[in-house]
């Protein structure tokens, strides 16, 4: 049993195929797919996908790349959507939220300031409802951590982690798991592979970020959640473990950090 903790099944690349893709993933042993929202306009979409497909769950949040066009009332809408979703067993986290200081323009004022404001306000929503968060952390690890120390949330996942060992340890100290996916499968990604091989096993979860970050064998084609078991085999090789051990460890870790996911039947 494998869990894809981060997959944008609502992306346009999957239009008209979501049922087949979710079913194919389940046939490959992917028992759960977590679909994070990226903006107010797709809250209903990710909720509907999770309700349509038995192996899917969802999160609600505003992605930092969508912060430039977001307005204050989007934060109010998110808070209202989270409150309404608390009775939905398929709702598991606030996300995808965070900071992106890689994309040109986003790291410059005033968008950097707006990103930090939206990130901190979404952390407060997660804190107020006792929910974990799914974090977008791109060249922003230290600032992400600064806010997590100020606004205590019940853990979450640092998606597509690519920081230092010291930063990883601080995320772990704060109750977070670290997401590894397709980037880990490239032999040239030495730092990510070292992290995956050497960090405590209780800190690791798996993800695809599909349709993005395809693994090495996909040749820049569309990534998909049925690739997760093969990605898991790569992690098993890096850690000299059997694949079924990695499946069990990463599933237990995902359930530990996303307790609402663990309660899904």
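-> sequence recovered:
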């Amino acid at each position: 049993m494998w869990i894809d903790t981060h997959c944008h099944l609502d992306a346009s690349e999957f239009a008209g195929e979501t049922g087949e893709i979710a079913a194919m993933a389940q046939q490959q042993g992917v028992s759960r797919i977590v679909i994070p929202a990226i903006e107010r306009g797709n809250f209903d979409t990710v909720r509907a996908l999770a309700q349509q497909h038995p192996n899917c769950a969802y999160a609600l949040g505003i992605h930092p790349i969508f912060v430039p066009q977001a307005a204050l009332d989007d934060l109010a809408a998110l808070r209202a959507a989270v409150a309404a979703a608390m009775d939905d067993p398929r709702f598991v986290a606030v996300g995808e939220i965070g900071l992106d200081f890689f994309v040109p323009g986003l790291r410059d004022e005033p968008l950097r300031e707006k990103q930090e404001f939206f990130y901190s306000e979404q952390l407060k929503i997660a804190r107020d409802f006792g929910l974990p968060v799914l974090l977008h952390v791109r060249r922003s690890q230290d600032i992400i951590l600064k806010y997590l120390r100020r606004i205590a949330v019940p853990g979450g996942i640092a998606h597509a982690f690519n920081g230092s060992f010291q930063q990883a340890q601080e995320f772990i100290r704060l109750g977070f798991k670290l997401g590894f996916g397709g980037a880990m499968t490239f032999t040239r990604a030495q730092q990510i592979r070292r992290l995956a091989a050497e960090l405590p096993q209780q800190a690791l979860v798996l993800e695809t970020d599909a349709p993005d970050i395809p693994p090495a064998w996909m040749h820049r084609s569309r990534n998909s959640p049925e690739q997760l078991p093969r990605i898991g085999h790569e992690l098993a090789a890096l850690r000299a473990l059997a694949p079924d051990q990695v499946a069990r460890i990463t599933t237990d870790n995902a359930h530990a950090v996303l307790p609402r996911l663990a309660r899904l039947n």
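The beta strands are 2-4, 30-36, 56-60, 91-100, 133-138, 156-159, 176-180, 204-206.
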